[in-house]
Amino acid sequence: MTRFLNALRDGVGFDILLVGAALLFLLALAGAPLVYNVLMSFQQVDMFTLGVLFRPFVGFDNYVAVVQQPEFWMVTRNTLVFVFGSMTGQFVLGFALALFFAQDFPGASTIRGLFLVSWVMPGLVVGAIWSWILAGDFGVLNVILKSLGIIQNNVFWKSDPNFSIWAVIIANIWLGLAFNMLLLSVGLAAIPRDLYEAAELDGANAFQRFWTITLPMMRSTIGAVLSLGLIGTLQQFDLFPALTEGGPANTSNVAGFWSWQLSFQLYDFAKGATVSVMMFLLVLFASVIYVRSTRHEVRG
Amino acid sequence: MTRTYTPWFLLVVALALAAVYLFPLYWMYVTSLKTGSEIFANPPTFWPREPNPDIYPETWARRTMPVFLLNSVIIAGGITAITVILGTGCAYVLARYRNVWIDIGLFCVLMLQVLPASVMVTPLFVGFNQIGLLNYPRTAVVLAAAAKAMPFFVVLVRATFMSVPRELEEAALVDGNSRVGAFFSIVLPLARNGILVCAILTFMSAFGEYIYSKSIIQSPSLQPASVGLSGFLGPNSTDWSSIMAYSAIYVTPILLVFVILQRRIVSGLTSGALK
Amino acid sequence: MTAQIELIDIDKHYGNFHALKNVSLTIDKGSFVALVGPSGCGKSTLLRSIAGLETITSGRMTIAGKEMTGVPPRHRDIAMVFQSYALYPHMTVEENLTYSLRLHGVSKADARKKAAEVAATTGLSELLSRYPRQLSGGQRQRVAMGRAIIRNPKAFLFDEPLSNLDAALRVQMRKEIRALHDRLGATSVYVTHDQIEAMTMADWVVVMRAGIIEQQGRPLDLYDKPVNRFVAGFIGSPAMNFLPGRIADSGNSVVLDGGGSLPLARNVEPGRTVIAGVRPEHLQVRGDDANFHLEVGVVESTGSATYLTSRDGNFQLVQSERTQLASGDRVGLGIDPTRVHLFDPETGIAL
């Protein structure tokens, strides 16, 4: 017992206690549910069997049923459109802003910091504000676009099947843009000034400096930002209930929200679990990219 | 244009960009101050003709905001407490050593950081139902959301601990302190600011937590403000002035904290997120 | 002399890396021992093992006769000065100095009195209420020293304490540390990669490489009688020159592969291939009776001495007088036979 207490005070026991408590907690509330999720996707889960662990085993029936749902391919397509649309918008605009704020002018870092308010706001509130801005009849975005001559008639962003997913994407770009910009700014700031000076002496113009110095030097940052963007986009949930609820007719539904709808609106927990297992596989793919891109930093 | 004017020109452009970017926030406040008819005016007014804050007390009372906000504070406080208490120690150990086990631990944490809440909510709900935790819905949400918040916290705080030189801790050991003592008297005080910033970030994001609360908490008297907002928000909502007033009341405290601590939050985030 | 620190068959593994290989070392009470070697040789690991900051894989150690294997650092009663000084940035100089006293339950008044005494001996009296970030490099170094001496420990451990100082301050601190050691009658273990520090400060030098002790002894003994080629090359600056050759049939000279020969003061087995070692400062420029010749490449003069490097870059010599030699000159060199070292070409062991 004393030896145990001594190890706790002076040895690795202290470390094991610290890391063990957190890992046990995470194992119980993240690891175990993940496994349970996979288990449920192979079971028949309904209101009667909700409270028991050993439910009838149905093999791949849930997977077959999910794929045969009429909206399955629509949701898959939407998920991909949402992910790539959001990431492209966040990254391109974020990079452009990062380059702009890398210029030397008074207040650059303070103003850049203000952009981050979008990131700390509750997703549901962001959704609410954008829902109002994007409203078809009285939304301010339509007014601005019309006065700029970009559109002639009101676009019903949230209720037009052609635009509904883009309504969520626009809000999501706004939400994630600042974080992208911030991380890219850090990467830009880490490039030594004298590299640019040397390139300038060698006769490279601004465009060439960007292609030959900035981009190559930013490779690991860009990798990390893109994979974090992918993860963040796959995690996005709050905007959907606030903006479109996946509608109209699932034209703006994505895997995460669909899974939740199946479980909590249709009480079909087996299908909800099945969709989220599919979604998890997608996330796993994203995280492999993420871990690869941060690997050298992990090792230091 | 001569070179001396360039910085000021850039400043103007930067302010214009910030104005465009922050327009949605402005629009939230402006809408909440407009009267019913002015909201639907065409073309819309960009400054309310007669700013009218009456909607605030009305929304505050009619939407039982004190109850919702109190629940938000309780839930966010619980999430932050668990995350900070468990996450700090974990981050410290992950920062202090470098070996295969630490790499595995770090990999697990990164993997968990990646899991979307929408993937976890179904098994958590069913699991909580089985062990009877749904009878304590706020506790259930705190546990679920703390597990969601912790990986990000660990990654950020780990970066803070990595900036505390290990030799300081060793000096304390040689000076006669135990591991526990050195951790509390040397390492923690030096990492305090970083931990505090990360705790505030955790609190802020927990304050907006939605999916777990929506799925797990049925009783309106226990729901947080996010669920309260969703109650009158949907694709066909029209009650914009009270939605915006509700939103404004909800986010203004967060925005104030952010603006006050902006510099620290930004530096805390940047040091951690890329490492 | 009694042993203050005794290390017996210490082994240390980091995963597959064997950092310390069966190291045994006795450190006498009151002695100043320097552990020296190239980076990665295990000298810091050995020091940290004495402090208890590293757990050794196998072996035993005692401090002041007490078994210390597996004992945590705080029960070892040793003080350590770190390379980075490791001053607690959130504490004032006084709090830094008295931290260990407070941990050991010394009363506040006593701790303050002790801090004032130590501050007086280390020249910190004016700085007690400052924070480490407000101090210069030399002042920080003194605080680190003060923090060590305030406790009157069983041994002082120094981990390259001078490497962050500029050259002039380093020379000064060398003397101060040694003077402090003598005044306190302390036992000190001093890790450095700088053989000059080791030679000038220590009365016992331990040369390490790749986790083993290559040689230990009094500084001048290491200089005069290195047991192998590594120690010979490591101790002395500029480094010893190594010339391959073969023992002449007479057995009392070395025929150099590069031409010329070196006289020997003793007889060695004729025909044997050897590496001859000659220190740059032991070579004299001679005319007709030169032992061998080489072409001058670079001439560097510091005013007090002239450093000559051969055209092929492999050979150095030091002249204390000014010289007219210039790049491209051919110079004849001679040496006192007693100062020629011989090493086995395969094992590197001194013959």
Structure description:
The complex is a heterotrimer of chains A (300), B (275) and C (351). Chain A has one domain (62-299): MetI-like (MetI-like fold). Chain A is flat, with a radius of gyration of 24 Å. The model of chain A has no long low-confidence stretch (mean pLDDT 86). In chain A, 72% of the residues lie in helices and 0% in strands. With 300 residues, chain A is an all-alpha fold. Chain B has 275 residues and is mainly α. Chain B has one domain (71-273): MetI-like fold (Orthogonal Bundle). Helix content of chain B is 76%, strand content 0%. Chain B has 13 helices and no strands. Chain B has helices at residues 6-21, 23-32, 36-39, 55-62, 65-96, 100-114, 117-131, 137-162, 166-174, 179-207, 211-216, 225-230, 240-273. In chain B, α2 (23-32) runs antiparallel to α13 and α10 (179-207) packs antiparallel against α13 (240-273). The mean pLDDT of chain B is 88. Chain C has two domains: 3-234, Rossmann fold (3-Layer(aba) Sandwich); 241-343, Nucleic acid-binding proteins (OB fold (Dihydrolipoamide Acetyltransferase, E2P)). Chain C is 24% helix and 33% strand. Chain C has helices at residues 43-51, 93-103, 108-122, 137-149, 167-184, 195-201, 219-224, 229-234, and strands spanning 3-14, 17-28, 32-36, 58-63, 66-67, 78-81, 155-159, 188-192, 204-209, 212-217, 241-247, 253-256, 261-263, 273-278, 283-286, 292-301, 306-310, 316-319, 330-335, 341-343. In chain C, strands 6-7-8-3-9-10 form a six-stranded mixed sheet, with helices on both faces. Chain C has a five-stranded antiparallel sheet with strand order 13-12-11-14-20. A five-stranded antiparallel sheet of chain C has the order 15-19-16-17-18, with no helix packed on it. Chain C is elongated, with a radius of gyration of 24 Å. Chain C starts with a strand and ends in an 8-residue tail after the last strand. The mean pLDDT of chain C is 90. The chains are: A mainly alpha (300), B mainly alpha (275), C alpha+beta (351). At the A-B interface, α1, α2, α4, α5 and α6 of A face α1, α2, α5, α6 and α7 of B. Chain A: The chain crosses the membrane at residues 12-36, 80-102, 114-133, 163-189, 210-231, 269-291. Chain A: Belongs to the binding-protein-dependent transport system permease family. Chain A: This is Sugar ABC transporter permease. Chain A: Residues 76-290 form the ABC transmembrane type-1 domain. Chain A: One of its GO terms (cellular component) is plasma membrane. Chain B: Belongs to the binding-protein-dependent transport system permease family.
